[in-house]
Design a protein that fits this description.
About 55% of the residues lie in helices and about 10% in strands. It is α+β, with helices and mostly antiparallel strands. The protein folds into two domains: about 120 residues, no CATH class; about 130 residues, no CATH class. The protein has a five-stranded antiparallel β-sheet with strand order 1-2-3-4-5, with helices on both faces. A hairpin with a 4-residue loop joins strand 4 and strand 5.
Amino acid sequence: MSSSPLFRVFVVHVGFHTFWALVYALSLSGLFMLIPLVGWYNAFMLGFMGNSVLGSATRAALLGYLVFAATGLLSGWLISLLRLKSVWIPACLSLALTAALLIVASSMRHKSVGVAGFQSILGLPATTGRADIDELSMALKTEYALAEPAVPPHLAGKGTVIPFSEIQPSLQLLPKGFQMSDGPYVYCNLPAEVWRGLKKDGAGRKYPLLWSRQPDATGRRLVMSVDLKFDQFSDELLGEEAFARMRTHLESAIRTQTGDTNFTLLK
């Protein structure tokens, strides 16, 4: 006894997603070259669902089954009404049409979200693209990774906010004579135990680590921040209001952790 047209169309749609779920499983087993393919599929086939799939490949695989089960049932029902002798070609055509519609919907979603939205969804670090900042970021990341758990470097015997020039010699990857343009800059020289407490209790928020003393002619200042959850460093030009919010969040977190109600980064 042959299976119903609806079931066969359903199998085509769900089978297509199952293929990509298997590709994802293989990428987790060590075939890392498949990871970009999985990312492409999630972004352009299922990206219309936004954060729910872009932030987690596993969640994307599960939700994908719901999407293709629904499209398979709908397409199968429509094709069964035509009472065709063979449903395999119509089933494949319906799958191609479904894929095209999902890609269009995902593209429209991406266009509306923009680059800043992707950075928020995926936890991507912001960057100004400046060569000197990239070099400094790499030096700080190296020192950060050497700590256990990973936290920003601390210069003992110094205050909470110090000139960057004081900690610069301890950053091993920075070449002699390294200079940053548009300075001067100050560094947030918190003790390692404070950073560890923030990492445990407040991970997920970007905290300022280094910033220019004064805003530039456009009213913005360069701020390098650290995300203690994803262990990422970002550098961006922030207006005074945005920088004040970021600084206030850090001050509040430190006051809560240390019990020092008078703590401030305004030196």
